[in-house]
Amino acid sequence: MKPAAFDYVRAESIDEALDVIRNDGGDARIMAGGQSLMAMLNMRLARPHVLIDIMRIEELRAIRVDTSKVTIGAAVRQAELLEWPSLENELQLISLALPWTGHAQTRSRGTICGSIAHADPSAEMPLALLALGGDVILRSARKRRRVAACDFFLGMMATERNDDELIEAVSFPSTRGRRCAFREVARRHGDFAIVACAAVATGRGVRLAVGGVADTPVAREFDGLEGSALTDALDAFAYELDARDDFHATARYRRDLVRLIGRELIEEVTR
Amino acid sequence: MTRMAAGQRHRLRFVLNGAAVDRECEPRMLLTDFIRHEIGATGTHVGCEHGVCGACTVSIDGRPARACLTLALQAEGCEVRTVESLAGGPDRLGVLQAAFRRNHALQCGFCTAGILMSLDTLLARRPDATEAEIRDVLTGHLCRCTGYAPIVKAALEAAAELKGETSREPVDA
């Protein structure tokens, strides 16, 4: 339960970090808050030769607001975002979902971007990014690119990020003037979600995103549906997620939660 | 940029319980092991070593953190506090510790050091913490002896005492 040996790089600029991942590629791992990665290192599920600590890079610490979106740098900790005075106004969905991410003792060090990079299927931040239709900003020594959340999550803990890329920031569309709702069922507050749902009012209807069921969070538009048409659509969605039985819950229970919470949230944001 | 090679010891400086630390360690050394084996401060306990049980919780720059999910080298320049910082002196108990004792908020004591540090950082930031906030912080800890209720009671009592609503004589350990 101790990490295998690695070189430790304390990067002071983005360019320094990018140089190391360009040279060491898949043998190098970026570490931000370390709240997922350190557990994997301790259990030796990850054995990088180089660990690049990006938390001292000043330019990654910013929360930037412009007219339609909020951009959160890779070194912004979850606890810092929770204490950001504009959070409820600008990103209501995050203010609802973030208290469910880990515990106070891990949010104090864990980052928003780190949770998105880790891409656990039951994690709240990937779910919220997908529900809001946000982007991941990836940077390598050669270029910078934006990837939409719907193209970023490829599978369980697998993302579109290449070995030579750093998640520089994520950008969430502002929720000002849009209704949002979030609900999660877990064995204990802060444990991994059995099912987590996020709903966001769109111009035409509601986007419902579900985490904890499929290998990635999945979003679906529910436009102008009511009564039995909504019931049927939610039922079809619940089956499409291809829930599996596991140690925590049965597939059937997960489908039930998707139908039940999904309807509650859709009604909540359209009421 | 500083690249510290695997298998070699590198300089590490931080403040532990108010005293400057200036030592060396390998990159892969966890903060738990550094505090216990290099410093010899064994108040911080090691439980699961993957961030689940909360026994190793310490305060880093005033926030509760899992020392087992933190490399010692990440503490460079930080202010770290452990359970050893809570009592006013030898054979004394701090306010939280005394409340734990009065309320039987511990039995085997293995989880206690971490829980005390989580509650200490909570009450420092939120002197008016509600029972719900206390319970929320406790979700980050596993205690198999107490059933948690006495811990909640002790925390509420300590919070009231720290705000000066009740006062007690210093308690011997």
Explain the overall architecture.
The complex is a heterodimer of chains A (271) and B (173). Helix content of chain A is 33%, strand content 25%. With 271 residues, chain A is an alpha+beta fold. Chain A is globular. Chain A has helices at 14-24, 37-42, 78-82, 87-90, 92-97, 104-107, 112-118, 124-132, 149-152, 227-240, 251-270; strands at residues 7-10, 28-31, 50-53, 63-65, 69-73, 135-139, 144-148, 153-155, 158-159, 166-173, 180-185, 195-201, 206-211, 218-222. Chain B has 2 domains: 10-85, Beta-grasp domain (Ubiquitin-like (UB roll), Roll); 86-162, [2Fe-2S]-binding domain (DNA polymerase, domain 1, Orthogonal Bundle). Helix content of chain B is 31%, strand content 16%. In chain B, a hairpin with a 2-residue loop joins strand 4 and strand 5. In chain B, helix 2 packs across helix 5. Chain B starts with a strand and ends in an 11-residue tail after the last helix. Chain A binds chain B through residues 1-13, 16, 19-20, 34-35, 38-39, 41-43, 49-51, 53, 55, 79, 99, 102-106, 108-109, 188-190, and chain B through 1-7, 10, 26-28, 30, 33, 49-51, 54, 57, 60, 63-66, 68-71, 73-74, 76, 118, 122, 136-137, 139-140. Strand 1 of chain A pairs antiparallel with strand 1 of chain B, so a sheet runs across the interface.
